[in-house]
Design brief:
Layout lengths: L1 E4 L4 H13 L5 E5 L6 H4 L4 E4 L5 H8 L4 E4 L9 H14 L4 E7 L9 H14 L4 E7 L7 H4 L2 H4 L1 E4 L10 H13 L6 E5 L7 H12 L4 E4 L2 H10 L4 H15 L9 H6 L6 H10 L1
InterPro entries: NAD(P)-bd_dom_sf, NmrA-like, NmrA-type_oxidoreductase
Organism: Nocardiopsis tropica
Protein name: NAD(P)H-binding protein
């Protein structure tokens, strides 16, 4: 059995949908904080049990009988995410899982400028010491997340932002499909694997793509880091949120997301969707 956490969310919910196309429903389980939100899976024969990272006993029950457990990474900045991830990993081991998979992120680093990267690094260390097979799925940044970095370019014709570097923005739908293929396939992947789109782009590239798709000239302007934070707060963005976004720019220009990897395309059996596809959807919306 494959047990998936976070299946009431968009990403792992789509992974379960893809698994249902590949496997009988009785080979799939869902561990949900709120089982009522997973009723659409239970109605189709998926085993649904209550579990949360704050409750190891409930997790052990929800993971019982699982050969593989897919753990979704948490994103609550106020919580001890490493501790909560440890709870989930230990519960999966105690429940007898033979492999634990974890939704990590490209650019994992203990001392990089982007804070979530250190959480993923610490979690991968826990996985490596857990005593069972493990796979860390280092996803690319989700392609719907780039909009805040571009600013109001459609109104101004300008992408004004700090200096940046290449990022392979990746469609969540592609990641869900590939993860289901990996979970249900015969090939195992040990340790960390990187699942990213085939093309890494900068904001200069965005400006070129946006110009071509919109039929108007879009200019890329580099703004000093502190001036950008000042501009953001003047527009109503909390300073803490602006400074967090700034860490993304710093990480991109320091090359933390410049890696290329063909694995996502191999799992999909086609090229992943690129930035131009997503930007065209946004322009047409």
């Amino acid at each position: 059995m494959i047990v998936v956490t976070g299946a009431t969310g968009t990403l792992n919910g789509a992974t379960v949908e893809h698994l249902l196309k590949r496997l009988p429903a009785d080979r799939i389980g869902v561990s949900a904080r709120d089982v009522a939100k997973a009723r659409h899976f239970a109605d189709r024969g998926v085993r649904v049990r209550q579990g949360s990272y704050e409750d190891p006993a409930a997790l052990r029950d929800s993971f019982a009988g699982a050969d593989q457990v897919l753990l979704v990474s948490g994103n609550d900045p106020a919580a001890d995410m490493v501790g909560l991830h440890r709870n989930a990993i230990e519960a999966a081991v105690e429940a007898g899982a033979r492999r634990i998979l974890y939704t990590s992120q490209q650019g994992v680093a203990t001392d990089g400028p982007y804070p979530p990267a250190a959480i993923h690094a610490a979690t991968e260390t826990i996985l490596a010491d857990a005593g069972v097979a493990w796979t860390s799925l280092r996803y690319g940044f989700f392609s719907h997340s780039f909009a805040p970095l571009l600013g109001p370019w459609r109104e101004t014709g300008v992408i004004a932002a700090p200096a940046d570097g290449p990022v392979p923005w990746t469609a969540p739908a592609d990641l869900s499909e590939a993860t289901a293929a990996l979970l249900s396939g015969e090939r195992s992947f040990d340790g960390a694997v990187t699942l990213i789109a085939g093309e890494a782009v900068t904001l200069d590239d965005f400006a070129g793509i946006a110009s071509e798709l919109s039929g108007r000239s879009v200019e890329r302007v580099v703004v000093d880091d502190e001036q950008w934070v000042t501009d953001q707060t003047a527009d109503g963005v909390p300073e803490q949120a602006a400074r967090f976004m700034l860490t993304m720019f710093r990480a991109t220009r320091e090359g933390y997301f410049a890696q290329q990897d063909p694995l996502l395309a191999e799992l999909l059996g086609r090229e992943p969707r690129g930035v131009a596809d997503r930007l065209a959807e946004q322009i047409g919306a």
